[in-house]
Fold these 4 entries.
Entry 1:
Amino acid sequence: MKIIHQSALDKSRWDQLVADNSARIFSCSWYLDACAQDWYVLVDADFQNGIALPFTEKLGIRVLYPPVFMRELDFIGTDMHFQREAQQLIRDSFPAGQFQTTQPWNISPFTERIYQQISGPYKLNQQAIRMVRKAGKSALEIRKTNDWPAIYAIICAELSDKISEFNPANLRRLQALLQQLEAHGQLHSYGIFNGQELTGGLLFMQQADRLTYLKGAAMPASRDAGGMYLGMEQAIQYAQSQELHFDFGGSSVPGVRRFNLNMGGTDKTYFSYNWDRTPWWFKLTKSVYRRFKK
């Protein structure tokens, strides 16, 4: 096995490995290109087993990290010996890392994190039912649309000042990701319309057996009228009609998790593994940076 930088990687061969194993969309080369600052893959000689390794470089030290809009990355392939050997090689090759995966690793410390999903029958709770009915009685209508740039513009306007994740660099990554999803025919856009006016929307990505919520937002009047609830309900119904898992994208943030559970989601677990063997001067510099950043 060897670690290959993305610039030297046969990406068509890597993407074939992803496709052959029905791996999550996060491992596709074009998804990594859009979201990660930089990335490697660790792969065997025959491209039968591998894992993507997003990294950032700070003060000359390469650190694994979870890119924005990329919840987890898993080992691809079934060779458990490869996976055990790879876990050690990854730790040896990167002095520090935070790596998120649905698969258990033999690494400590780690934390359990959650996302929400619907597989099979679901039930809205009373809060969600009230909001869907409220939206249904209003002038709002949910329609599929190809005008994702207009929805993206609303997301930028409504969320950039409210959520730290939506800084200019990450918004550029989101735009690049949406362009790639559209190019690969895997983008689903639901607009929240008041008459002919687009007042919000929800963006999803579809791969294999899964419809995953990416991002969405609505103008205040449409949000208060239940537009996001109505849009999410319509997307869930589409997923049900296609026998797809509905993936909320997930969150441990209490308010977001509560919304997802209200809509019928159930918690699913993934793991965040962390290690830090960086030199003392690196830790000190990072600590000082964080202090001044506040």
Entry 2:
Amino acid sequence: MTMHLQPDGFRDAMSRFATGVTVISTLDEDGAPRGITVNSFGSLSLDPPLVQWNIIKTSYSYPVFHRANRFAVNILAADQETVSRNFCKAIDRFATVGIETGMEGLPLISGCAAWIECCVTDEFPGGDHAIFIGQVERCRVFDRLPLIVWRRIYFDMDKVHRGDACSKASASSDG
């Protein structure tokens, strides 16, 4: 039996999976920092150390990442909800965040829970998205709780411990 799946139903079902929030960053062809909020990030392999993430192919950021040979995963900290929201919008995304310089000039967002710097090894089609695989070259972790999203709601884990848990997340990103 084949059932027709509605996109909103699928999106709603997937929102039931709690996940961390990242900003994937890189440099464009002119050396300017570029980034996008992503929660489709995950580890792929320990040997060799690989990670994966995806982006919708119609995103205006897609061509930048398609041409890039490196990217950084900025795992957002509990107090970086504003950073997540800003990197979902078509504004100067790096204007309001502190930036540190990673390997080969990769932009790293200050205040994150972790940074993972990668070399792109593969890009695969995945429906309306492109799936990027990166080999991890350097990781740095910080003593900060992560920002979590569940059912399109941000959860500041620091606030959860204090009893003031969440705020509504953006329903979509224009990438």
Entry 3:
Amino acid sequence: MSEPAKLAVIDLGSNSFRLVVFSYAEPDETGRAWWRRTDEIHEAVRIAAGQDEDGTLAEEPTERALETLELYAHFCRATGVEDVRPVATSAIRDAANRGAFLHAARERTGLEVRVLSREEEARYGYLAAVNSTTLADGVALDLGGGSMQLTRVDSRLATDARSWPLGAVRMTERFLPGEKAKGKQVKALRAHVAEQLAEAAWLERGGRLVGVGGTVRNLASAAEIAAELPSYGVQGFSISRAALDELVERLAELDSGDRASVPGIKAARGDLILAGALVVQCVMEAGEFEALEVTEAGLREGVFYETLLGDLDPPLIEDVRRASVLNLASAYGADFAHVDHVARLALELWEALGSAGLHGCDPLERDLLWSAAMLHDIGTAVDYDDHHKHSRYLILSAGLPGFTPRETGLIGQLARYHRKSFPTEKHEEYALLSKHGKRVVNVGAALLRIADGLDRSHCSAVSNIKVKVGNHHVTIKVLARGDAELELWGARRQMELFTKVFDRTVSFEEAG
């Protein structure tokens, strides 16, 4: 694979400045590409703090912002990143002294900052949402420090987009400036947001709500911890209206300096989180959304997707879940000839056993099995020994955009149990699964083990299989290209879990 390209996106937000480096490779001879975030610097600059009524940026936050940009420019030069895209949002866009700031930034850093229009800012939030989730119909919400963007999505396309100065910093300074949030202040904030949202009548059409931005991620982290759920990030996590209502009530009872004591809320956002939560709450109420699905992608990813998929209009990933799996597999150098073959054999087994009534034929479970088959060996990038455990770790740590945390966890478990020890209550991560989740892991792992054994040589010697299911026995006939003795040996070594899960013995025959 050729040397990856690098792109640095600098997001000059109203609350935070963030530099993110993406490494990516163009499609190879197989048509596969990969990308991932490989570096990041985050500073809570708060350039919008103390902004005058006419929009003039205050001197102290302006200097903080310029010093941070100097640091980012130095970082890019030191690390050899030549493609740098600085983009500014609400606070700088609306500043009366915007020209002076941009001139100072250019003089001190050499960077040409692109000021995004409201429409462009909404577009990048939309691209981040639809390319990292399965949102097809509903609304993408992007809440920053200075503004909030809502985009109506129909059949994955943006059909309307609006932007309002309802960011967490602005709402805090206007409505909740003191240590304690008074009831009348909260009511005034909510009334103001509701009035603004009235111009987006399409909110009432509902659908799914997907949220982008640091405030949203912090709220998701707090809700996840409050629910006592295992956390490997908040990608795909859904905050219910009831959970958000409880969180808002809890935050409102605390002084602004104490809100960061709520597990999941970062110290740098403690004083802003209540205002942001109230804005989100108003959106959910206006659209009668039952939940807010969270993505860890943001404006930076939106800019990156436009670069990666520039030949498409709009730049949309065709199948987010599939692309997410293939991207992770590519990033860790998967042997695609092997994993493609294992996935096909595993699904052939799944179809045959499902047709015989040995499992429920849930298409979601089929998707999870395929995903685990494609990723089961990525742990070899760490080390061959215990690579099944390394695979699980990489899947959970990297995350899989398009999947819920539960689904990502199941994929990780399937990869973990494709070899060596069986699923057991002695393993905490397995013991915590629901009864249904355990069944998904048991069935998938049993099939994945046999499919992996049938390609023990990694040379696709088995061209096809035919499965005959009896009351007490399953026969798998193997059609091979030449000698398949190693594959038969490999599969026979993996029969025990299959027998345990399906309560049937299994035998392998080489078709004549």
Entry 4:
Amino acid sequence: MKNLLNTLTFAFLMFTSLSSFAKPGNPFKNATTTTLIDSYIQATSLGDTKYSEYLFAEDFKHIQSSNKKTKQYNKKQILTFLKKQEGYIMNCEASHKIIEQNSSYSIAKVKMVFPNFTRIDYVTLSNQDDAWVITQVATSYENSKL
């Protein structure tokens, strides 16, 4: 009986020790596109970057156009920017609309209305490995002097 108790105790300790080193899974594994867009808005306009590393595909592209200038950013650059903006709440009203969606692809329009201009993000999502990820964001500005 003592050997059985020792064995069970050892097995329990091994299980809890090994599981504490396990890498956490993707929190968006079973999320909908709407959940992902909401998380994108929280990261970009509300400074909540907790799960932003899971939002974007590895080959993510952000294309930003303003006054005839176009800039392009990758996942690493966007995550660095978002981490710097952590906790910063933008003075805007944000909303979104799913434009097109099927089982593997989706496009959403995210609108952020600031006092002097409007930022519009066209967000492309793809269902990869049974989880939605953002593959591209194209940003433009209305009524902007940027």
